[in-house]
Write a structure and sequence with these properties.
Layout: H1 2-16, H2 22-39, H3 44-67, H4 69-78
């Protein structure tokens, strides 16, 4: 379940943000997971080994989001989905 959520987060970041947005997301997510695993009594190397799959999934999702950005924008313009300008 975690790799699927990580891939979805990567797709969202790839669609809506520029290229350097993934690095802080990965570092913060990895840090939160390592601290959580360490506080539960897992070893540092064990938590780093488990962390590799979600980071790869986020990266893959990010590249999917980047490559589908033009099609996504075309679909949004075709369906007339725009941000509301009301305050």
């Amino acid at each position: 379940m975690l790799p699927i959520l990580a891939c979805g987060a990567g797709i969202y970041v790839g669609l809506h943000f520029n290229i350097l947005a993934l690095l802080p997301l990965s570092v913060l997510g990895a840090g939160a997971y390592v601290v959580s695993a360490w506080s539960n009594g897992q070893g540092l190397l064990d938590s780093l080994a488990v962390l590799a799959l979600p980071i790869i999934a986020v990266q893959a999702g990010y590249f999917v989001g980047l490559t589908t950005r033009p099609a996504y924008l075309h679909l949004r313009s075709r369906l007339n989905i725009r941000h509301s300008e009301r305050v």
